[in-house]
UniProtKB/TrEMBL annotation:
Residues 1-455 form the Major facilitator superfamily (MFS) profile domain. The lineage of its organism: Bacteria, Pseudomonadati, Pseudomonadota, Alphaproteobacteria, Sphingomonadales. This is MFS transporter. It comes from the Bacteria. Pfam families: MFS_2. It comes from Novosphingobium jiangmenense. The chain crosses the membrane at residues 43-69, 90-109, 115-137, 158-179, 191-211, 239-264, 270-292, 304-322, 342-367, 396-416, 428-451. Belongs to the sodium:galactoside symporter (TC 2.A.2) family. Keywords: Membrane, Transmembrane, Transmembrane helix. SUPFAM superfamilies: MFS general substrate transporter.
Length: 460
């Protein structure tokens, strides 16, 4: 048996702070890989490689669809191997493969044709995403194996969310400045890939090596094929309710993420405000993490999840009344005026950032509770399959979100263009605003109706 595995009865429920930190830091690099290619690859392909915009979208979509199948497979694989070698080899191999894949994505700019470039990038992203699955699924499974105490597992998820938010700030907020600092063009993209690749490698390997000798709960793996293990998952009703809840919630969020740029371009008419908006939202999320450590202890994870979701939905629906007006209240150093509507938007960012991270981390924390429930009821647990399926459904939701956004925008008369942003009708702008307000808020409320069926029986 691997030295990092131990019987659950021999493990203390309290997880040392150093272990929590070593676990959480791995999410920093993981989040950089999760977000940066999705945001930057279309831009890289269309501006550096001459790939048509429609094809660039497919290049990013195809590997993501593959992960819907890959994540559960990796989960089952890591479950079968955990008693022999533990999960550390998966973390190490996934970290190295993810890093090499990330660097390779932006390493070449001289392809024979745009279509060959698209094929090459798709293949590289496919391989890099597979390597990331090898890391991320066992990584999530470990969260359910570090402690038998639900509050300790929530503490683990709070630190994980802290590093995830830092990853968003770095990956999304600093990528373009780094590219421009190194001169833009091929040199800028190469420098960015090496810097972020090194960050991925260091943070992910820190977790892999830091957890190598940390004892994990070893309840054994569910025997049989992946289909047999999925049947075991299907018998876990709390998990299925949580899975459906998160799926609906993520579809709404994915649709809103798709149109954030359009909202600020057409509805607010202040595209320059996006970085400030993201900074305020991320800072609020970081500051609110102690709240999501304390509140579930006071009122329970389910009630805290409902509270965070309701606040998010209530604030999100107010985007229906977003506008571009308001009296000027200040002027930025570059001469850009700031009006009252801009301040209301930043206030929304603070509130949304405070609660958004809360219900995301609580969903993951409750997922570990459902795994622990299976372990207590049956004596065995296939943590990797639970984590892999949860991850796969998240990716499916984020693949469907842009599709829904495209359908709604087309239905409301959005006009595509080349060479710059085209003027849009009032109806088209209404469709954009709906995708950022009423639609995600409604899906969140529907998700909460599903979540009302969540019951986690208490076992002795």
């Amino acid at each position: 048996m691997n030295a990092s595995l131990a019987a659950s009865s021999s493990l203390p429920d309290e997880v040392p702070t150093g272990v929590v930190l070593r676990y959480g830091v791995g999410q920093l690099g993981a989040q950089v890989f999760r977000d940066t290619p999705a945001v930057l690859l279309p831009l890289f392909m269309t501006t550096m490689l001459g790939v048509p915009a429609w094809l660039a979208g497919l290049v990013v979509l195809v590997p993501k669809l593959w992960l819907i199948v890959c994540d559960p497979l990796v989960g089952a694989w890591s479950d079968r191997m955990k008693t022999a070698i533990g999960r550390t080899p998966f973390l190490i191999g996934g970290a190295v493969g993810t890093t090499l894949g990330f660097i390779a994505l932006f390493a070449f700019t001289a392809y024979p044709s745009p279509y060959i470039a698209a094929g090459a990038i798709c293949a590289l992203f496919f391989l890099a995403s597979t390597a990331f699955s090898v890391y991320s699924v066992p990584y999530l499974a470990i969260a359910a194996e570090l402690s038998g105490d639900p509050h300790q597992r929530n503490r683990i998820m709070v630190l994980r969310m802290f590093f995830a938010t830092l990853g968003v700030l770095v990956g999304v907020g600093l990528a373009q400045p780094i590219i421009m600092h190194f001169g833009g063009g091929a040199a800028g993209w190469h420098a960015m890939s090496w810097i972020f690749g090194a960050l991925c490698l260091v943070s992910m390997l820190t977790t892999a090596s830091g957890l190598r000798k940390v004892p994990l709960i070893n309840a054994g793996a569910v025997p049989g094929s992946l289909l047999d293990q999925l049947k075991t998952v299907a018998a876990n009703k709390p998990y299925l309710v949580l899975l459906a809840t998160s799926f609906l919630s993520n579809i709404g969020q994915a649709a809103s993420y798709t149109v954030i740029g359009f909202v600020f371009l057409y509805a607010v008419q202040a595209i320059w405000l996006i970085p400030v908006f993201i900074l305020c939202m991320s800072a609020a999320s970081l500051a609110a993490q102690p709240l999501w450590l304390w509140l579930p202890r006071r009122i329970g994870k389910p009630r805290a999840y409902v509270l965070a979701s309701l606040v998010w939905a209530a604030v999100t629906v107010t985007w229906l009344w977003v506008g571009k007006g308001g009296a000027d209240v200040a002027t930025l150093p570059g001469g850009q005026p700031v009006n009252t509507e801009h301040l209301l938007i930043l206030l929304r960012a603070v509130v949304i950032g405070s609660v958004n991270g809360g219900f995301i981390l609580l969903a993951l924390s409750m997922m570990t509770d459902t795994v622990d429930y299976q372990r207590r009821m049956q004596g065995v647990a296939n943590e990797g399959v639970f984590a892999g399926l949860f991850s796969a459904m998240e990716k499916l939701a984020f693949a469907l979100g842009p599709v829904i956004a495209g359908i709604v925008m087309s239905a409301f008369g959005f006009v595509s263009s080349t060479g710059g942003a085209a003027a849009q009708s009032g109806s088209a702008i209404t469709g954009i605003v709906l995708l950022y307000s009423a639609i995600p808020a409604t899906l969140q409320v529907i998700a909460l109706l599903v979540f009302s069926r969540y019951r986690l029986p208490v076992t002795s």
